[in-house]
Design goal:
587 residues, alpha+beta, four-stranded antiparallel sheet, 14% strand, 3 domains, 15 strands, 20 helices
């Protein structure tokens, strides 16, 4: 199903001119060898582009559309019209002259096979170059010497004719390559699992390049290279274990590589590369979706809100002058590195409007009163995951498994992973801090994960955006009371380094029956310390606040609170702190 969706997307991209036809791909090229009609080298042309990176000018290779590259491992495989110095001129720095000569001979043989019958000036020039070039004296060539160090350092080389035209642009040579690549396989035809057609099967699939943590040369999504992975009766058959045609393998890998290389079609979450696309190939669906995720994209928050509101209601929405259809089929694929292969963390498919509706509901659950110094309208996935990791440690990476399960839960409208709540609680116990992010996650988790149970009737009134002064739910009241007692302590002891939160927060949250009698006794000393005079107003304020909260407590302090009630306690504490801060600001 994943490969079928990617193949359809590839067809859409080709029809729009975003991707080249099968058998061709963009390649980084650094130099061109200029040859005349007789195949003699007359000049080396640098093809590097100057760009600015980190305020410095650097030179990078030029991307040129060239024949599809061979997937090399340890064998000798030549590429048509473009390759490194070992294959093109028979020179390298590996210190293995015999192997380098075999590379050149393989490249020479390939070009002779493809171009022997091509009636073109450019084809004849290239054939003559390979047939007359002598790798043994290449290092002494006066034309190569000024560039030799750069040429042998892994740079890709192509050819240009003396009249200035690149040889790979010759229509007759392009036609020869298309015919050769289409008929190069001698394998018997088999039924392709993706297209359902009889076709040549890809033994080795093209690599996927650019996934963080994967191999720099590319990583396979599908591969069979050991008997342990092979089906019975398919020993050493590689790709025949799961027959995918050469054309289908090219199409899905081209579509994936395009999205990974294109801004707005992907983002990284922990170790997972998430790519997303609309089936019709319209590009604006992807950046709109990325903005909905809140992935730190500089887009007006009101525009995102309007997009979510309209699309989730089933209405079309204009995004960057493009009409987005809420009924358009949309796909989301999460990929993570796994040795030499990619593992699929998740694959989600639904209408664009349904994904928008799930995101809207998620953002609404996260809404909570926030400090004045927090400008974020909502919290992105990255913000949420950062709340589960120790930001003071050397490794601040959140759990990779949590990133995948959180994304899947939100986008499919499923309950949040329990691991999310557990990690938030662990961080609160370790840090004795509960800010906007942690409070928002607690609120969203309890709203979603208890909505179909009996607990929700008790929790609903306290899972509010800001302080609920009317509720009598005990864990919430205890959280409010703890925040009030802490505020009282700070008022009585200005500049105090360690408050009751640092000493008693975890215990008050888990075993209030043991801690709160001590805290109430301590509060009387703090009230007495405020005394009269200029601090009389503070003493009266906190005394009334304590009385107001404690008057709603109609039962004994519980010996223990379960994990969900501890979250309600923390939510009450956060709400009360924000309320006290707001009142001080007003005053």
């Amino acid at each position: 199903m994943i490969l079928q969706a990617l193949n359809r997307y590839y067809d859409s991209l080709v029809s729009q001119g975003e991707l080249e036809r099968q058998g061709w791909q963009p390649v980084n090229v650094s130099y061109a060898l200029r040859i005349d009609d007789e195949g003699q080298l007359i000049q080396v042309l640098p093809l590097l582009n100057e760009v600015e990176r980190n305020k410095k000018k650097v030179f990078i290779p030029r991307k040129i559309n060239l024949p599809l590259r061979q997937k090399k491992s340890s064998g000798i495989l030549a590429n048509f019209l473009c390759d490194n110095s070992s294959y093109i001129i028979g020179v390298d720095i590996k210190g293995k002259p015999e192997r380098t000569l075999k590379c050149f001979e393989e490249c020479k043989s390939l070009h002779n096979r493809i171009l022997a019958e091509v009636d073109s000036v450019f084809a004849r020039s290239l054939v003559r170059f390979f047939n007359t070039w002598n790798p043994a004296i290449a290092r002494d060539n006066e034309i190569l010497k000024p560039f030799l160090d750069e040429l042998v350092d892994g740079a890709n080389l192509i050819f240009v004719h003396t009249d200035g035209q690149f040889i790979h642009e010759d229509p007759m040579i392009q036609k020869a390559w298309d015919e050769y690549s289409a008929n190069s396989s001698n394998d018997e035809l088999r039924r392709c699992l993706v297209t359902g057609e009889m076709a040549s099967i890809a033994r080795i699939h093209p690599s996927i390049v650019g996934v963080p943590g994967g191999q720099s040369s590319g990583t396979s999504l599908i591969s069979f290279n050991k008997r342990a992975f092979e089906s019975y009766g398919h020993d050493d058959d590689q790709g025949l274990n799961a027959p995918v045609s050469v054309s289908a393998a090219f199409a899905y890998s081209a579509a994936l590589n395009y999205m990974i290389a294109t801004q707005g079609h992907h983002f990284r979450l922990s170790d997972t590369m998430i790519v997303f696309w609309a089936e019709n190939g319209v590009s604006e669906y992807a950046p709109c979706f990325a903005a909905m995720l809140g992935d730190d994209i500089e887009i007006n928050a009101n525009d995102i809100y309007e997009a979510l509101k309209n699309l989730s209601a089933g209405r079309h929405f204009m995004w960057n002058e493009t009409d987005l259809d809420p009924d358009e089929k949309f796909y989301i694929l999460g990929l993570a590195p796994n040795a030499a292969r990619l593992s699929v963390r998740f694959f989600l498919q639904n209408t664009f409007g349904k994904f928008a509706d799930n995101m809207r509901a998620h953002h609404e659950r996260l809404q909570i009163v926030k400090p004045n110094n927090d400008p974020r309208r909502t919290l992105s996935f990255r913000h949420i995951l950062n709340e589960t990791a120790n930001q003071k440690s050397k490794d601040k990476t959140p759990s990779p498994l949590l990133s995948g399960s959180l994304t899947r839960s939100v986008l499919m409208g499923l309950p949040y992973p329990v691991l999310l709540y557990e990690q938030i609680e662990l961080r609160i116990r370790a840090e004795h801090q509960i800010g906007r992010g942690k409070a928002a996650v607690i609120k969203a988790f309890l709203m979603k994960n208890t909505q179909n149970g009996n607990q929700y009737d008790r929790y609903e009134e306290v899972l509010s955006v800001d302080l609920n002064e009317n509720t009598s739910y005990l864990p919430y009241l205890l959280g409010r009371l703890f925040a009030t007692l802490e505020g009282l302590q700070k008022a009585a002891n200005p500049g105090i380094n360690a408050t009751i939160k640092d000493r008693f927060f975890n215990a008050a949250c888990a075993t209030p029956g043991i801690v709160f009698p001590q805290l109430i006794k301590l509060a009387q000393a703090h009230l007495k310390k405020l005394g009269s005079g200029e601090k009389e107003g503070l003493r009266v304020f906190y005394d009334k606040m304590m009385v107001s909260i404690m008057s709603k407590i109609e039962e004994d302090y519980p010996a223990r609170l379960n994990l969900y009630d501890q979250g309600i306690f923390q939510l009450g504490y956060y709400h009360q702190v924000q309320s006290l801060y707001a009142k001080r600001e007003d005053k």
